[in-house]
Design a protein that fits this description.
The chain has helices at residues 18-28, 53-62, 73-76, 80-92, 110-120, 123-134, 139-148, 160-175, 203-211, 215-219, 224-235, 247-256, 271-279, 285-292, 299-311, 332-344, 361-378, 391-394; strands at 2-8, 33-39, 42-43, 47-48, 67-71, 98-105, 179-185, 327-330. It has 400 residues and is an alpha/beta fold.
Amino acid sequence: MKVAGIIAEFNPFHKGHTLPIIEAHRVMGKDGYVVCIMSGNCVQRGDLAVFRKKARAEAAILCGADLVIELPAPYVLGSAEKFARGGIALLASLGASDLYLAFGSETADGTALAGIARELDLSEIQAKIASGMREGFSYGTACQRALKETGEHASLLQTPNNLLAIEYLRAIHRLGADIKPLPVKRQGVAHDSETPHEGYASASHLRTLLHEGKAEEAWAYMPEEATELFRRELDQGRGPVGIGQLEQTILTLLRLRREPEGGYLDDSEGLSRRIHNIVAEVATLEELLEETKTKRYHLSRIRRLILSMCLGLSPADRPEIPPYIRPIAASQKGQALLRQMTKTATRPILSRGGEVKKLGREAQRIFESESAVTDLQALCFQNITHRRGGSEWKTNNWLP
């Protein structure tokens, strides 16, 4: 079977997200399947998703995807390298005989991206990157500096989607996965642009509009099918959501949380201790972020660690490969694919929360962290009837 994977967050789903889906279907033909591997209710920038994962996954299905499966929180709250590795590992575990990875990037030059990916894995380049980070540079900047001496395409690392695309290619190589890259040039606007262009707007700009109560402006940059779903979420008091709405909860958890055995997930150079010391004296989340950030540790990195600390995540909560495949939404065609996957997948398919208890403690810990993220997101809902916890365990099946 032919499958094209798309690793994404759809936070929220917008017109630009339809392009890799369309291109994947074009390349594979009518017999191929598009599977989106999507972050759940937290996202890689260290925030809670603006809308529930169910709504974002349904939007992807209505806009051409066949199946959406979940990338668990411990992988989402990692670096670009960990995020990419988790997504690629899940894609490879589907057991498809013919696999593609479609991804949006600022360049569609797959040869250049693959060249950079190979260079970054060279031991001498890795040593230069490590040296740059010790000097206080961020990972992305350290990579650019390391490649400037030897790589003619180092400038491609200046844009976030290119950087993530390169991490996908590195993960494919490291896992030995037989996956063919399918780069799709990003259209319209830059990753975090706050200015729409030619009918496209960044997810960052759309989140800003939603949080400012300007949803009608945001709908213009989303497919109609997606806007109907997101209108429903707003009407039912389930969005928009952001980490700032949990300010008191987060400050409380950080002040009371005890470090788990083995330390916190992705902690380094005492950053969690720095956060713990600062949170004891500040009054707001914004103060905490401003006091903690440095040239090396950008806000997204700090926010990810803050969420990991609130959840009590340790390195043991993120095995090298996700222990299960969890569907969130599927079309009729996608449900047919799921039936095939029961024979081909190399990881168990988890369609009901209770089933995780049969998969061992490692899988349970991952599921428990996902459940905790969902419960945190629910506390942000304006409609208090939707704030009850435990929904991940109570949901019998995410599929229609």
